[in-house]
Amino acid sequence: MTNLDYAIEQESQPDQVADAPARGDIERIRPLPRISVHVFYETEGLAKTMERSSDDRRMGKVNLRVNSGGVSAATNMFSGSPTPNLLILETRADAQTLLAELGELADVCDPDTRVVIVGHVNDVALYRDLMRNGVSEYIVAPVSMADVIGVISMIFVDPDAAPLGKSIAFIGAKGGVGSSTLAHNCAWSISSLFSSEVILADLDLAFGTANLNFDNDPTQGIAEAVYSPDRLDEVFLDRLLAKCSEHLSMLAAPSMLDRTYDFSGEAFQPVLDIIQRNAPISVLDVPHAWTEWTRRVLSTADEIVITATPDLANLRNTKNMFDVLRKLRPNDHPPLLILNQVGMAKRPEIAPDVFCDPLEIEPLAIIPFDAPLFGEAANSGLMIAESSAKSPVAESLAQIAHVVTGRAEMKKRKRAGLASLMGLLGRK
Could you tell me the pTM of the whole model? Predict the structure, then answer.
């Protein structure tokens, strides 16, 4: 239902467009297909909204051009050139003038081009006239970024298409912080707790450990998928997946150094796209590196989990990653943070509250240092919940699984008071 369809049903105000119902959380909108969109604006408000929209990860494949001017400007531009997939036209003209201008535009507009009007008149009668004249949608200014992306999605994303799965990327703020271990345990927990199909992709081709942690060493895996993008389909993916449990499959890394693994920024995108189409949840074990392809993977993931240990280098790296990812993903919530290996004997540590203060977040989980627990599980090829199901760490992993899949909200911890924080800082 469009916002104006909704308005037509509001009998209490038949002559006006009622406030539109919320389009839903923008984070639930699927990535848009590869289309061309031209916007013609008459106010700076729409221009700024489109600029923000162009930076959103859901618009990554959209070829967007923003031009000043209204309907007449669009008619002039396209009188001698093909029109794009979508025209978004802002107008402050009255109804009669607007319909006349749209008639002139129709003479130069390709038959399959869709048109969205951003108007400044709150009038259901105008909406009905526009729908009769072939306009796809009419939205009343001012419009938000959610309005823009939502209306494009409504037009071009098939509602009957199979939904894309959710991708959850794990990365460490520093090497050796346990990000891969947590990623593997989280993938197992999701598949076990919710009986949901999960694909774990080990993206560390040189030093990946997923095959060791699951005691499973397949002959093929992620490398064959990355190096053969032209062969990627569901059948080929099935051949590459190794079964880890009833609902968990793995794209294992070769963990060999017989070649170097230098990739372009888009190298993993075809693999990740087909994984998302074939599993409700995909867990991406991203190596601790900062390259064009790791930036790309993180910028397009639905959820990011950063694992850190409580020391100064980790705090610096985590802060840098948070700052960059907030710029790359301005319309998504910040990454989630797991503090791991907390409480190691005789090691000076930054207190969790002090660590999280400059990040302005609460940690998703604080995992204590427990060498026997993790070591026994790793050496046995088992997950924590398999080797020690009643341990506090297993409970924390279950909570992580609930939060990253959206089944639960993150629990807020009780913060230390100012005096406690000053005391902790004084001991450093």
Answer: 0.74
